[in-house]
C-alpha cells in the first residue's frame, strides 16, 4: 500500500499492487506512478499475470525510485503533457530485465548496465516485455544545465559503459554512488545525492557533445546560407536566431570539424567562386561579387580567395571564361 508522499527531503514511500484485487491494480498503479513522477498511463496484457512495486525517496532536488513492473507499457501521451505542467528530466537505469524507451523518434534498448534520459515535457513510451526492475531518477531540468536544444538531443539515447570519454569513466562511479545512497546514513544521503546529480549533469553534457543534432545543424546551416550577404553576420546573431547559447553553437560546429567563422567564410567563397565562373556581359565586377557575398574589403576577398583556391579571383574568372569558350 501507499505509505507516504514525497513532500520533503528524506520522506519515503512504498507501494505494491500485490494485496489489491486484479481488477483494481492497473488504476492504482497508474495513479501511484503519476503521483511520484509525472502524469502517466499504464497498459497491461489482461491475460498475463503482473504486479508492480515502487519505492521512492527524495533527497534535495533528486528523487530516487526503484520500480518493479511488467509486462506492460508506461505512456506519457500528448494529453498527459498538456494536463500536467511538470517538466522534470527522468533517467531510467536498468537493473534487471530489459525495456524499450521511445521518445523523439529514437528508441533506447535498455538492459542492465544501461541508462537513458527522457524528458517529461514531451511524450514518451516505455515498453516492458517481461517483469523487470529499474531505478528511476527524477530532477528539475535546470539541474542538468543544458540548453533546450541539447535536451532534445539527449532524450531517448542509450548511455552505457561501452561509450568513450568521460561517460565510460563516470557511469560506474554513478552506479556505485546510487547504491551507496540507499545504504548510507540519513545524514549522508543528501550529500551523496548532490554528488550523483553533478555526475548526471556531466554524463548528460558528454552524451550531448558526442551526438550533435542533425535537425538543428540543418536549420542553422540553411539559415546561415540565406544570410551570407550580411557583412555583419556574427556567431552571436546565429545563436540568438536559433535560441541556443554561443558556447553550444561553437561546440556544434566543432563537432562537425570546423568553426562558425571558418564555415561561413568557406560558404561565402564557394558562392563567390560560382558567380565568378558565370560568363556573359552582365556579370558583376569582382568587387561587386565580393560585396554581394559579405566581404567588406575587395583586397581581403582577393587574399582569402587566393589562400583557398591557389589563384586570384581574376585568374579564376579568366580560366572559367577560357574553359567556356573551349566548349563552344
From TrEMBL:
UniProt keyword DNA-binding present: yes
Domain HTH araC/xylS-type: residue ranges: 218-319
InterPro entries: AraC-bd_2, AraC_XylS_family_regulators, Homeodomain-like_sf, HTH_AraC, HTH_AraC-typ_CS, Tscrpt_reg_AraC-type_HTH
Gene3D superfamilies the record matches: Homeodomain-like
Family matches, as Pfam families: AraC_binding_2 (PF14525), HTH_18 (PF12833)
SMART domains according to UniProt: HTH_ARAC
PANTHER family on file: ARAC SUBFAMILY, HTH-TYPE TRANSCRIPTIONAL ACTIVATOR RHAS-RELATED
Protein name as it appears in the record: Helix-turn-helix domain-containing protein
The species this protein was found in: Microtetraspora malaysiensis
Amino acid at each position: 500500500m501507499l505509505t507516504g508522499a514525497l513532500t520533503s527531503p528524506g520522506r519515503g514511500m512504498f507501494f505494491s499492487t500485490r494485496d489489491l484485487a486484479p481488477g483494481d491494480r492497473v488504476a492504482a498503479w497508474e495513479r501511484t506512478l503519476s503521483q511520484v513522477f509525472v502524469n502517466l498511463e499504464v497498459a497491461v496484457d489482461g491475460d498475463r499475470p503482473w504486479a508492480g512495486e515502487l519505492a521512492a525517496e527524495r533527497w534535495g532536488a533528486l528523487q530516487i525510485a526503484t520500480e518493479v513492473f511488467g509486462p506492460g507499457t508506461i505512456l506519457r501521451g500528448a494529453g498527459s503533457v498538456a494536463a500536467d505542467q511538470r517538466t522534470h528530466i527522468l533517467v531510467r537505469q536498468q537493473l534487471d530485465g530489459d525495456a524499450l524507451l521511445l521518445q523523439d523518434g529514437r528508441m533506447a534498448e535498455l538492459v542492465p548496465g544501461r541508462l537513458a534520459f527522457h524528458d517529461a515535457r514531451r511524450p514518451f513510451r516505455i515498453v516492458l516485455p517481461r517483469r523487470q526492475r529499474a531505478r528511476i531518477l527524477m530532477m528539475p531540468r535546470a539541474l542538468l544545465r543544458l540548453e533546450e536544444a541539447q535536451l532534445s538531443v539527449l532524450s531517448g539515447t542509450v548511455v552505457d559503459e561501452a561509450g568513450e570519454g568521460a561517460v565510460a569513466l563516470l557511469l560506474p562511479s554513478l552506479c556505485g554512488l546510487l547504491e551507496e545512497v540507499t545504504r548510507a546514513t540519513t545524514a549522508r544521503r543528501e550529500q551523496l545525492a548532490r554528488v550523483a546529480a553533478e555526475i548526471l549533469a556531466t554524463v548528460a553534457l558528454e552524451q550531448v557533445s558526442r551526438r550533435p543534432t542533425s535537425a538543428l545543424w540543418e536549420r542553422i546551416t540553411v539559415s546561415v546560407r540565406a544570410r551570407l550577404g550580411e557583412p555583419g553576420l556574427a556567431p552571436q546573431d546565429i545563436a540568438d536566431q536559433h535560441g541556443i547559447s554561443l558556447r553550444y553553437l561553437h561546440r556544434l560546429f566543432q563537432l562537425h570539424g570546423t568553426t562558425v567563422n571558418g564555415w561561413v567564410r568557406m560558404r561565402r567563397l564557394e558562392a563567390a567562386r560560382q558567380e565568378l565562373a558565370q560568363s556573359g556581359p552582365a556579370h558583376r565586377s569582382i568587387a561587386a561579387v565580393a560585396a554581394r557575398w559579405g566581404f567588406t574589403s575587395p583586397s581581403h576577398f582577393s587574399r582569402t580567395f587566393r589562400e583557398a583556391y591557389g589563384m586570384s579571383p581574376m585568374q579564376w574568372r579568366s580560366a572559367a571564361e577560357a574553359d567556356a569558350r573551349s566548349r563552344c
